[in-house]
Amino acid sequence: MELDLTWILLGLPAAFALGWIASRLDLRQMRIANRQAPRAYFKGLNYLLNEQQDKAIDAFIEAVQNDPDTSELHFALGNLFRRRGEYDRAVRVHEHLLSRADLSGADRQRAQHGLALDFLKAGLLDRAEEALRKLEGTSYEGQARLARLAIYERSREWPEAARVARLLENSGEANFAIRMAHYQCEQAREAVQQGDAVQALKILTAALEATPDAARPRILLGQLQLSQGQAEQAFETLSALFARSDLAAPLAAASLAKAAQAAALSKPAMQLLETHYAKQPCIDVLEAITALESHTPEGAAASHQRYLVHLEKQASLMAATRWLTDESSEAHPLPAPVQKALEQAIRPLARYRCAACGFEAKEHFWHCPGCQAWDSYPPRRIEEL
Which tens digit of pLDDT belongs to each residue from 186-197? Predict the structure, then answer.
């Protein structure tokens, strides 16, 4: 069968024309899609800048639907959902990203980090910890370890917290020696609560050997030694704080006075307390001094005058109340309404306040129950700040 060249010559231009038309149609559709995605994206960005998050999310969802392969829009959506507290939707966005086989390694790490933050913000600590563990060996390793450290502190898993703190310190993130001493102190407190004073003494001794300049393990060790009848050891442990004029010494003043009385070491204790008070006057050290002095009539009269001397140095309602209470006698006591008014007036002044968040408490905290900051409570009463 012979081919008709006429038809071939006529068909070639027609086929070429049809191919050209088809390619133009595909190109036009691609241009339309590409124009729609940026338009929706910029619309969402505009809403976001104007703090219209609901409309911004709708615009970003439209952009993702027009171009489902984009990753940046998914990340933007995930962050928006998390900021709005819509953690379920944020988790779905990041899990969708992680399910994509074409996702780059850097974006996969980023999505895993975003997923961990979703769980963390939602309070799902177990799932957050699992997600954070998968970031070991990535560029997010340091951030993930810090987040895990916060989780372990929040859940009071002190051995795990210490292990992560050592990893962070070894990687050069920061010096966590004092923080790890706090963890040991927390473990010692738990041992005391469980009735295991021997284990608590071992833990605190190890903490003090590792961080001899840390105040908390020294204070807790001295107080525990005192409670165990080891008054001389307690005095020796606590006196080091006053010998070096440690800022935290006022927290140990009352315990030092008790240990000195039990070990018949009132004279050296008085020297330490008076030296510290001369450098840093404060009501807690003053009360420890008066406690040592008040065992004799002469000493009681001298301690009574100390409050007046203190008031000459600095105005203090707490010191004034102590002086008025001592000034009254059985024959001429303070009227009950006056005593009650004074007690109510000094109660808020005798509290401690977190320097980070302002949380106030009757006792001094090393770990703020409000903002979870460490060493944020000055060792002085609110009146003396």
Answer: 999 999 999 999
Rounded Cα distance between 313 and 285, Å, is: 15
- Taking the C-alpha atoms of residue 101 and residue 97, their distance in angstroms, rounded to an integer, is 9
- 6-20 pLDDT per residue, tens: 544 444 454 454 454
The residue range of the domain holding 296 is: 250-255+262-346
CA distances from 123 to 89, 96, 129, 181 (A): 15, 21, 11, 27
SS3 374: strand
Q: Rounded CA gap, 355 and 339, in Å? A: 31
Range ranked top by mean pLDDT from 47-51, 62-66, 212-216: 212-216
Q: End-to-end alpha-carbon separation of the chain, Å?
A: 110
What is the torsional sign of CA 233, 239, 244, 249?
A: positive
- Give the count of domains, the chain: 2
Q: Residue 200 and residue 193: Cα distance in Å, rounded?
A: 10
Q: Does a structural domain hold residue 54?
A: no
Structure tokens at 355: 């320097």
